[in-house]
Design a protein that fits this description.
With about 290 residues, the chain is mainly α. The protein has nine helices and four strands, in the order ααβαβααβαβααα. A four-stranded mixed β-sheet has the order 3-2-1-4. InterPro entries: DUF6594.
Length: about 290
């Protein structure tokens, strides 16, 4: 999760200066492609293996009973660099094309006497393209993002090497990007595009279980920790300070996790009510 968060944000244009009006020629339809094409393909280099990757690789080989003669078991000539194709950039290119058409339709509707042909279809396609882009965004935190064709995976690396053979040139070089994980090899089990149905089900179940377990642990800690403080030190200031601090931190966590204001307010108020009751009991007994 944190490795995915370090990924650079997708930028829409490789152009360095958009302030000059001469940069984009809006009278030529090809400006849309020029605006996005630098982000379609990036070049990556093979990362060095850490001690953790080497240890995990040895354990996997022993478990599967496979002994490889080389470190990567790839074709002759070890591949030290590969590519990443961003399929989501194609969707942004499509959105920009539809947006340009709609802008022209609106201008024609405002200043021309007749209705432009196809404006309703372009508007419907634009809305659907936005929905598709939202769907793509839902997969960004998955370990195997299906909207990235990356050389980090063996099958896709071979496919990219075949497609990119003889295509690079010095006039229009590719940008370099950083590999986010260790590269898989021919002996590793390939991951299906989008995953299998049973695999996705169990992965989602375990992810939900980990989240529920984490929430249970945090909730228990927020109830047990102030209870120990108030019992061990039965003073009014200890009870008030601990209650204030724990309620403030709990409210901050609820603001981070929950989306609706009513849910944040009700959860924080319920937790504060529990601590206030416990403060009354401990101070009275003290």
């Amino acid at each position: 999760m944190f490795g995915r968060a370090k990924r650079p944000a997708d930028i829409e244009s490789g152009l360095k200066d958009l302030s000059s009006p001469e940069v984009l020629d809006f009278d030529d339809d090809s400006w849309v492609i020029d605006h996005h094409r630098n982000n379609l393909i990036e070049k990556i280099s093979k990362p060095g293996n850490t001690w953790y990757d080497a240890l995990l690789g040895d354990w996997r080989r022993k478990k599967s009973g496979r002994i490889r003669s080389s470190s990567n078991n790839e074709p002759q000539g070890e591949i030290e660099h590969s590519y990443i194709i961003n399929l989501a950039e194609l969707q942004r290119l499509r959105l920009r094309q539809l947006q340009r058409r709609l802008v022209q339709h609106v201008v024609d509707l405002r200043y021309n006497a007749e209705e432009p042909a196809g404006w309703a279809d372009d508007l419907r396609d634009y809305v659907q393209a936005l929905r598709d882009h939202d769907y793509m965004c839902q997969h960004i935190w998955q370990p195997n993002d299906p909207f990235y064709v990356t050389g980090e995976r063996y099958v896709e690396r071979m496919m990219l090497q075949s497609a990119m053979r003889g295509m690079e040139h010095d006039v229009d070089p590719l940008r370099w990007a950083k590999s986010r994980r260790a590269w898989t090899t021919a002996s590793d089990k390939p991951v299906p595009i989008g995953g299998t149905r049973d695999g996705n089900y169990w992965e989602a179940w375990f992810a939900g279980f980990r989240r529920r377990l984490g929430v249970a642990a945090v909730g228990a800690a927020f109830l047990i920790a102030p209870m120990w403080l108030m019992v061990l030190r039965r003073t009014l200031y200890t009870a008030l300070v601990s209650t204030t601090v724990f309620v403030a931190v709990f409210g901050l966590l609820m603001a981070l996790w929950l989306e609706k204001l009513t849910e944040v307010m009700s959860a924080t108020a319920a937790y504060a009510a529990v601590l206030v009751v416990f403060v009354g009991l401990t101070t009275d007994s003290g």
